Amino acid sequence: MKRLPFAVLALATLLATAHPALSEPKKVLRMAFRTAETGFDPQKVFDRYSVGICESLFEPLLTYDYLARPVKVVPLTAEAVPQPEEGGTRYTFRIKPGIYFADDPAFKGKKRELTAQDVAYSIRRFRDPKLASPYEWLFENKLIGLDELAEKAKKTGTLDMDTPIPGIEVRDRYTVSFKLKEPDFNFAYVLAMPNVVPVAREVVELYPDDMMGHPVGTGPFVLKEWVRRSKIVLEKNPNHRGYELDVRYADPNDPWDKAAIEALRGKRLPNLDRVEIYPIEEEQPRYLAFVNREHDILDETPFEFIEQILPNGKLAPALAKQGVRVFREEAPETTYDLFNIDDPTLGGYTPEKVALRRAMVLAHDRDQEVGIVRKGQANAAQTPVPPGVVGFDPAFLSHQQDHDPARAKALLDMFGYVDSDGDGWRDLPGGKPLRISYKYNTGSQEQRQLALLWVKSMAEIGIRVDAAAVQFADLLQDKRVGKFQMASSAWTADYPDAQNFLQLLYGPNTGQSNEARFKLPEYDRTYEKSQRYPDSPERNALYRDMSRLILAYAPWRLGVHRVFNHLQYPWVKAYKKHPILYTNFKYLDIDVAEQQAATKK
Amino acid sequence: MTAYVVRRLWQMIPTLAGVILLIFFLFNWVGGDPAQVLAGKISNPEQIANIRKQLGVDQPYYVQLWYFVQQVFTFDFGRSWSTNEEVSRILLTRVGPTLTIMVPVLIIETFLAVIFAIMVAYVRGTLTDRTIMILCTTAMSISFLVYIIVGQYLFGFQWGIFPVQGWSESFTKNLVTYAPLPIILAVAVGLAPQLRLYRSFFLEEINQDYVRTARAKGLPEKKVMMKHVLRNALIPILTNIGIYLPSVFVGSFLLEVFFSIPGLGREIITAVNRSDFPVIKAVTVYLAVLTMIINLLVDVMYKFVDPRVSFK
């Protein structure tokens, strides 16, 4: 009997040391999303927050190196980044053996290994009419035989997932080869997208109506808890093989890289046990939750609080004193205002029409947009291609987009846009009234301010612009069918190549992504030629030519590249924001002692 | 009474039909095409047509309307267009947090408003009465948004009395930890107009002949106020609560958005922003039915409060 307490103590000690999880506090990261998620079916979701969660639950064949800038594609579930074969029309992937999906009833208690069939199935799934994937365009007119399957599916209602097609060839358990219709040197980027990830067919078939709520991937985390639009909890995937931080592409002079390497030295990723994400749409509670230490990270610092957080561009002393760090990110996105090139007033390619658009561009006060509307958190765009994207030329300057009302007036006078009837407003050459409508999203205060800036800027040169607020869905539709004169728009990189931005003005994309309906044969020829080149000085020269044509014909008024500020407390380790991937949970670490001490204060 | 209730229930049908028609045509005329949003960044007309087909919005209006009517009577509104979640599940999971906030708000607000109103009505014309009325007018002039922003900043952040925001799975924790600040702010906003209104109800009763008679009979003032005045003033108070009651089941979207409460109010805003018609339809019909049932219950309750009321 006397030995019992000792035995209990010994057993408890043994258990505690044998299972570190019992003795060590859990590493929990808490943060907010600005917008509520929609779900986690990777082939179905397209909002960045849902896709951001998918980044942790699923794994594509390729991904982006965490530290490399400019971004670099590296293998993830594939053994290597494939070299283009057959002139850029074939890509062959070999999947690493021994990668397992997270456990799920769909697998009936067995471990389920990732295979080439899963990759093939998931790519086909994009073209399934039942799914209506918003990323179907990625595989349209791309893989040999897939369009024909999709055509058949339109009649039958279901895509044939089994009949082999030459475009997707499963060679063995771990090898899949893609045959493209045309050369595409950006195909590797497509396969690094967080939507282009393998899903297990059994899971899709078990939860046909609720794949959004049953994400089962091979990623480092699993979805542990989900109170829709309120709380998302991820926990470490016990089936995950673990990673090591690749430091080959780190910049030895970058303090963020150095800190990440130091924090993760000798550690197996992921480090976090749990990630708690709270969608908070309002800016004040999101900001207060961070400064109250209820959250560890404040992604995308609200613009409303920028003066309190970053007065004169420097972190506020009160935050700096607590060790808060700020990561400034120029987002790989470009905002722009569209001129409808099919519009009889604004559109066309004749000198007087081009002059009108260029005069409007010159008169638009973009400095006010950056300084006032965007509170200094944006940089004026010089080309459609944002920084951080392959093909971006930092030396490219576009004086055609400078704010110069005097030049604008001279240009209008020269081409006969004068006040013919004496009402104080300029008229069209010939005397007909010149009146332009600018459409913007009714739900956005920022969009309203930008629309009013257009009205004000144009009034200064005598052009009458009416700002018209329309519902978001209507605005999308109007832009797709060309029912507008001017409208606001923006594009965020799907993959980091200039082609993703320059296709926005490619003639055959009219009615889809070419909202300006710009159809310039010279531009189209240059675009098509650029697609035949891999990343090279020759291709960059073609990209520059396209940018010049855009400036010359002015189908757009280039806007800005927004700047986001991301804050973290000092106990968050190895933070670095990736320009393409939205989340970075698998790389982060937490100093629990520091976190707990600060939270108790 | 049974005949009265059956008659009232029967009268609900044309009202419900009107609600269905109104929602349906409002959505189809001003709601925008949801397929445009769901199609993503790059899509062609065929893909948009496919989405429209899947959503059923490509059908003739009369077919869509018939589906809607079926949905109302089967209480099956299908799945959310944006998240594919069952609409019934959305309603069921969201109503709990909403009621956790709104039921205490209703109880506390009504209780305080009645107590304060009867007190100030009793001392009408005095400095206390005037001061409270000025305070009420001032309080009513301030936007709810200001209450929330300032209240959250002071109580949640500056003084750290309550958490800034949050919600848990535990009802007790929610009620004790996360709900108090939203409740306090909602009561602070709602109290002033209720107090003014109820004060006028009490004053009207105090000036009635029966009160003078009761006083002349020598009844103590407390009894006059609590037994005679309060009881008669309860009818308009009950009517007012009846008007307010349906909103209890929908919640305050401002509170829910600012305090991250996963309630129905926040859900409605999200649904509207995403043109998620199944959710909008379900919530609107649910609210309309609820309003009609509550109105009926309030009318039935009149009978118990005032014996002079009869069901005809």
TrEMBL record, chain A:
Protein's GO biological process: peptide transport
SUPFAM superfamilies in the record: Periplasmic binding protein-like II
Residue ranges crossing the lipid bilayer per the database entry: none
Keywords: Signal, Transport
Highest taxon of the lineage: Bacteria
InterPro entries documented for this protein: Peptide/Ni-bd, SBP_5, SBP_5_dom
Chief place of localization: other
One CC-aspect GO term: ATP-binding cassette (ABC) transporter complex
Family named by the database record: Belongs to the bacterial solute-binding protein 5 family.
Descriptive protein name: Periplasmic oligopeptide-binding protein
Organism of origin: Usitatibacter rugosus
Upper lineage: Bacteria, Pseudomonadati, Pseudomonadota, Betaproteobacteria, Nitrosomonadales
UniProtKB/TrEMBL annotation, chain B:
GO CC annotations on file: plasma membrane
Main location: membrane
Transmembrane segments: 12-31, 101-123, 132-155, 175-192, 233-259, 279-302
Membrane-related topology note: Multi-pass membrane protein
SUPFAM superfamilies attached to this UniProt entry: MetI-like
Keywords carried by this UniProt record: Cell membrane, Membrane, Transmembrane, Transmembrane helix, Transport
Compartmental location: Cell membrane
Pfam families from the UniProt entry: BPD_transp_1, BPD_transp_1_N
Family under the similarity heading: Belongs to the binding-protein-dependent transport system permease family.
PANTHER family in UniProt: INNER MEMBRANE ABC TRANSPORTER, OLIGOPEPTIDE TRANSPORT SYSTEM PERMEASE PROTEIN APPB
Name of this chain's protein: Dipeptide transport system permease protein DppB
